[in-house]
Write a structure and sequence with these properties.
Helices cover about 55% and strands about 10% of the residues of chain A. Chain A is of the alpha/beta class. The relative contact order of chain A is 0.10. By secondary structure, chain B is an alpha/beta fold. The longest helix of chain B has about 60 residues. The chains are: A alpha/beta, B alpha/beta.
Chain lengths: ~625, ~600
């Protein structure tokens, strides 16, 4: 036969694939896993394996510990298929009765996915403890050809894994034989279990077990009424079984059918009923349709189904966006005065560059006089060294000062991060705390220090000056004036360079960079996430003084300093990005973009399709 | 007074002392968050201990505990032999808890909120020494809210002394009930009862197995309450387990046992609370240990930096060494011709040095100059410069520059955060304060170092100017002097008489003086060179020795102190826990009661 939901089968399969993909993306957002969510389990355990198949019914005997589930199961089996015991929580793994030839036509493993299937060998096997979920199955000749009957572990005992197994059977079942007793019908966990079954529109047969007949005859309807009200279950059949331990042990416990809802004049028949016969008489295809529809509805439910999950993903992503915006709209650190590279070094480098430009006999002459000069000065220099101690080379002094500035900046970055952490954004806090802990600080400082010590400052200066001088020669024709002005320029210029560190890479923050106060000093905003530098007021300061020749050179000097500071600040920015923040910006960005991802869109699209199909099928 | 009674009193005194010690512990303060958390827990505990002490002599409160439908009310009715709490087939039956007491019992002493009970007064013997409460069930409530059964139960439990834990074949492994029992059982004696003996199989064996993981289970009763009720209504004495249970509740919890039961409960409470606190503190202690390790690392870093700088400076300051050694040698030598030569030399040197002394570049050189002269130098410096800039100078002279200090602070702030020493870390030091701390550290280091240098100088001076060496140099010097003197004496006494032409001319004296001067200088030079020999090796040894030393206090003495204090308090907590365990083990309680392990 074809069910009206056959068309849904393909969609459900696609949906399942798309969701798995989405989940692998959504890991970055720290959403709780899909496994264990009711709708997802239903999708995996009920809809995917059962939608396309022809109608067979899965019947599960469910209930609390030690209330006679196995007794009722054995009644259904007609033999001692499941072990019974006076002690509670006996059955640890489900036992399934399979009609002959069923397993050839169907794949049992896909019907009970998540369970290790074992052929039934003896009744006690289901009582043994195993970490993995097992399911024991045996062929039973006496049950109809499209009926699977299962005995399940308890739903309220102190062995929690039993609950999980029972839940999994409930999800794939169509019919539940709910075993209730006067002690347990009102227990919180029991009610919760059956409420879910009601939401999924399972067909429920209630067996009220251990009823003290005839004393309890007036009471059980009251108990059942409470149960139905609390759970929303509307039982198909209601049976009453007496508290008769001997009969239960001998597998001849009688079941009395009762009218439900109660009629005016109840017929308290004592005629025994066979549950199996009643089960066989059920309208299989109708029930199958009903439970599939129930499961589909649960999956598609706006409040607790898949759409709710999508909404959760979306709002989570929004939270990440907020966190990211929080980071990007605040400047991370500021250094008012980046140390200028010593002018003698610059002058020396300019001279060196100049010297390298000389050619022919001038070069020889100059080299001779330079060598002579150095030779004559040498004794004086060594005397000075002896008297005043070894002189620290100026670039090393600069390195010291720069390290001081870097320390300043790092200190401020940590302070700012602490502030971010104290804002208590739940997404940022754990990540930032990880950056702030002592061990990562030690590592960060050590790394910065090593890298800083390894930086070849002389090379940096030389390459910058080479480029600048080249540009200068091309820009200004009177470059021969250079040597004249060079000392003059070096004496006049002492630029103040400020650096702001921004974390703009976490989101759009252009306006934040613009808001840096544009005073006379040269200012830079270093975007930590990309390591790029934006000059805010530097070029303006340059053009103002560049009118005259000497002024031009001064301006050139100023620009040189500024460029150098910018280069160093960008270096610091890159270091902080790579080693302090690490993958944080990428993580945030990945989480933000999930709702735009292909998997998300596909899930959403498939849901809409599925909803249409379901509405169409329901007519 | 009997001995056993005396022992009891002694034990009670011990409990009181334990409570007092707890009180004192709670009143101490700590900047460490986990300890404050423990204090909060113990403060609550002490509140409960106080109410227990107040009602020490009041009748014991026996309460039923168990899932819905296990027959709690039926059991209570059967125990008192009257139908006084509604026991029925409708579930749940008991919502308003019932309190059953003897008409003469003064209920005010119990401290129970009486308005929340349905009160029943019955004149039956079993109620003479106890009060029975029939509690609501813990397992029908899905989410605890006001006016649910679970909420009512939780409000009642702190007032109970003995729990009658009632269960059945169906319910004895119910997860919810066992979870609730674990919470409820703290500070209570337990009696385990399986009901429905008329219908159910005996599962006591399995139940006991399950229970013994968490509880001491001396006995489990298997009772048929309806039958016992019928027996009593018919005027028969109940039999079997029910009779034993009744007997336990009437005779064994007699007035004499009350105090013991309550004390035992109290000790259980204290024991479990301290256990919880200990666990909490132990979980967080590694962070403190990490902080200590970090403090130690930073201290070592400072120490290494200072040692390295000291070594370099000592090796570089050859001139100062020489003067120190010379001074020391002349002190040992006493008065003699060669030593006066040395003194003259060193005096000349000092004259030059005193000029350079003002320019002594560092505190290391100061240490080398020696304590006496150094102090003079320092006081002069004090007048010359402001104290602040001086501190700065001293601090940076030993290699503790600002960067080093700030790196330390930056790293340690992280560790403080990890350790949750929040209140301490809030006062991060300014560079100025850091410098002062560094100056203190350096002072401490230098004090030690200069002592060692003094010792070393003394040692070297002694070794390099032994008797033989002294004799040798004296002889060398004196041989020339003697020769010159011989010539003079001979010239004066002999030649002047025999051959006046041979009288030494005046320029002889000049020549002799010059030669004597040169000779003396050569000798002094040789001697000082000898003194300086192997100095480098000596300095290296000194440096390695110093490196092995440990600074008494690092840059952050406050934090170090805080860590020590935390360890101290943790030890106190552990001691308290041990005392509680000891007293608990010694207190003899009626063995027929179960209790949490």
């Amino acid at each position: 036969m074809t069910s009206p939901y056959t068309a849904c089968a393909e969609l459900v399969r696609q949906l399942h694939l798309a969701i798995r993909q989405l989940e692998s993306h959504a890991m970055a957002m720290q959403t709780s896993p899909l496994k264990g969510r009711e709708w997802f389990e239903l999708l995996t355990r009920k809809l995917v394996p059962q939608l396309s198949d022809d109608a067979f019914l899965v019947v599960g005997v469910v209930g609390g510990t030690n209330i006679g589930k196995s007794v009722i199961f054995n009644h259904l089996a007609g033999c001692r298929a499941s072990a019974t015991s006076a002690f509670a929580s006996g059955t640890k793994h489900p036992v399934c009765l399979v009609p002959p030839g069923f397993e050839q036509k169907h794949d049992l493993a896909s019907i009970f996915c998540g369970f290790d299937l074992h052929a039934w060998s003896e009744a006690n096997a289901a009582l043994e403890d195993h970490r993995e979920h097992r399911l024991f199955w045996r062929t039973n000749d006496s049950i109809p050809s499209n009926l699977l009957i299962l005995d399940t572990p308890d739903i309220d005992g102190d062995v929690r894994v039993n609950w999980e197994r029972a839940d999994n059977i409930r999800r794939c079942a169509d019919v539940l034989v709910a075993v209730l007793t006067q002690q347990k019908y009102n227990d919180a966990v029991v009610k919760q279990f059956f409420r879910k079954a009601a939401e999924e529109d399972k067909v429920v047969l209630v067996v009220f077990n251990q009823v003290l007949l005839p004393d309890d005859e007036p009471y059980w309807p009251v108990w059942l009424q409470t149960f139905c009200q609390e759970t929303g279950i509307n039982p198909e059949f209601v049976y009453v079984a007496p508290a008769d331990r001997r009969a239960a042990e001998e597998n001849r416990l009688p079941f009395y059918l009762r009218d439900w809802p109660l009629r005016e004049s109840p017929n308290n028949l004592v005629e025994q009923h066979s549950l199996k016969t009643d089960l066989s008489a059920l309208h299989f295809s109708t029930i199958k349709l009903r439970t599939l529809r129930g499961s589909l509805r649960t999956v598609l439910n706006e409040r607790f189904g898949l759409p709710a999950y999508l909404a959760e993903v979306r709002s989570r992503s929004e939270e990440f966006r907020t966190a990211s915006a929080l980071l990007s709209t605040h400047e991370l650190a500021e250094s008012r005065e980046w140390p200028p590279v010593p002018n003698p070094v610059v002058v020396q480098e300019v001279r060196n560059w100049w010297q390298a430009q000389r050619e022919g006999w001038t070069k020889t002459v100059h080299n001779f006089y330079n060598a002579l000069g150095r030779g004559m000065l040498k004794p004086f220099a060594s005397l000075r060294d002896r008297l005043q101690g070894e002189r620290v080379p100026p670039l090393e002094q600069y390195r010291q000062r720069e390290w001081q500035t870097i320390l300043d900046t790092v200190e401020k970055v940590y302070e700012r991060l602490q502030w971010f952490s104290e804002l208590g954004n739940p997404l940022l806090q754990p990540r930032i705390d990880r950056l702030l802990n002592g061990k990562s600080r030690v590592e960060m400082l050590e790394l910065l220090k090593t890298r800083h010590d390894l930086t070849d400052l002389e090379f940096e200066v030389r390459s910058l000056i080479g480029a600048e001088m080249e540009a200068f020669r091309q820009e200004s024709p009177q470059s021969f004036q250079l040597m004249k002005w060079i000392d003059h320029g070096a004496a006049a210029v002492r630029p103040v360079t400020s650096v702001c560190l921004f974390v703009t890479g976490f989101g759009p923050a252009g306006h934040a960079v613009q808001s840096v106060a544009a005073n006379a000093a040269v200012q830079f905003a270093v975007d930590i996430a990309s390591g790029t530098v934006t000059a805010v007021a530097g070029e303006k300061a340059l053009s103002e003084t560049a009118a005259t020749g000497a002024g031009l050179f001064e301006a050139w000097f100023r620009r040189l300093h500024a460029r150098f500071a910018a280069k160093r600040a960008a270096w610091l920015g890159r270091m902080l990005k790579d080693h302090l923040f690490g993958t944080l910006p990428d993580e945030l960005q990945a989480a933000i973009s999930i709702p735009q991802s292909e998997a998300f869109q596909r899930v959403q699209f498939t849901i809409t399709q599925l909803q249409k199909e379901v509405t169409a099928a329901d007519g | 007074m009997a001995d056993s009674e005396l022992a009891q009193i002694e034990l009670f005194a011990e409990i009181d002392e334990l409570v007092d010690r707890l009180q004192r512990f709670v009143e101490m303060g700590s900047p460490w968050e986990p300890l404050s958390h423990c204090r909060a827990i113990l403060r609550r505990l002490l509140g409960r201990v106080e109410t227990l002490r107040i009602r020490l002599e009041a009748p014991l409160v026996v309460a039923t505990f168990g899932g819905t439908g296990v027959g709690k009310s039926a059991l209570v009715n059967a125990l008192v032999g009257r139908e006084c709490t509604r026991s029925g087939r409708e579930r749940p039956t008991t919502t308003l808890p019932v309190l059953i007491a003897h008409p003469e019992t003064n209920l005010d002493a119990l401290g129970v909120p009486l308005e929340e009970f349905q009160l029943v007064r019955l004149d039956v013997p079993i109620l003479r020494d106890i009060v029975i409460i029939d509690c609501p069930d813990p397992d029908t409530t899905e989410a605890e809210a006001v006016d649910t059964n679970l909420w009512r139960l939780h409000k009642l439990l702190p007032h109970c002394d003995v729990l009658l834990n009632v269960s059945t074949q169906q319910k004895y492994r119910s997860a919810r009930v066992s979870d609730e029992l674990r919470q409820a059982a703290e500070g209570c004696r337990l009696i385990f009862v399986q009901t429905h003996a008329d219908r159910d199989s005996d599962i006591r064996e399995d139940w006991r197995r399950q229970l013994s993981e968490n509880y001491a289970v001396p006995d489990v009763f298997f009772v048929d309450s309806p039958r016992a009720m019928l027996d009593q209504l018919a005027g028969r004495r109940p039999s079997g387990d029910f009779a034993r249970l009744q007997d336990l509740l009437t005779s064994r919890i007699a007035a004499s046992q009350r105090v013991q039961v309550r004390r035992a409960n109290l000790l259980d409470l204290i024991h479990s609370a301290i256990g919880h606190c200990r666990q909490h503190v132990t979980d967080h202690l590694p962070a403190i240990e990490k902080l200590e390790a970090a403090l130690e690392t930073q201290r070592q870093r400072l120490h290494d930096a200072m040692t390295a700088r000291l070594r370099d400076e000592l090796i570089a300051s050859q001139g100062l060494w020489e003067r120190r050694l010379l001074t020391s040698v002349t002190e040992h030598w006493g008065t003699s011709p060669f030593s006066s030569m040395l003194r003259v030399y060193s005096g000349l040197g000092s004259l030059i040095a005193s000029a350079t002394l003002w320019r002594a570049r560092s505190s290391v050189q100061m240490a080398l100059i020696g304590v006496v002269q150094g102090t003079r130098w320092l006081s002069a410096k004090h007048q010359e410069r402001e104290a602040e800039s001086n501190l700065q100078r001293v601090a940076s002279s030993l290699g503790l520059d600002d960067n080093l200090l700030r790196e330390s602070q930056l790293v340690l702030n992280g560790f403080l955060r990890d350790a949750k020493l929040t209140t301490v870390s809030s006062g991060s030091k300014t560079v100025q304060e850091l410098r002062q701390e560094a100056a203190r550290v350096e002072g401490q280091f230098l004090g030690d170092a200069s002592q060692r240098i003094d010792g070393m100088v003394d040692d070297v001076a002694k070794r390099r100017s032994g008797l033989l060496i002294r004799l040798w140099y004296e002889t060398l010097l004196m041989s020339l002097v003697v020769f010159v003197l011989y010539r003079i004496v001979r010239s004066f006494f002999w030649d002047s008489l025999s051959d006046p032409d041979k009288i030494l001319p005046t320029h002889f004296y000049v020549n002799a003086g010059v030669i004597l001067g040169i000779w003396a200088t050569i000798l002094v030079m040789l001697f000082t060179r000898r003194l300086r020999r192997g100095l480098q090796r000596q300095v290296e040894t000194l440096a390695t020795e110093l490196a092995r030393q440990r600074l008494e206090q690092g840059l952050f003495p406050g934090w170090e102190e805080a860590c020590r204090d935390i360890h101290e308090q943790c030890r106190t907590l552990i001691q308290l826990g041990e005392t509680a365990t000891q007293v608990r083990d010694r207190l003899a309680i009626p063995s027929s009661f179960g209790a949490p392990r």
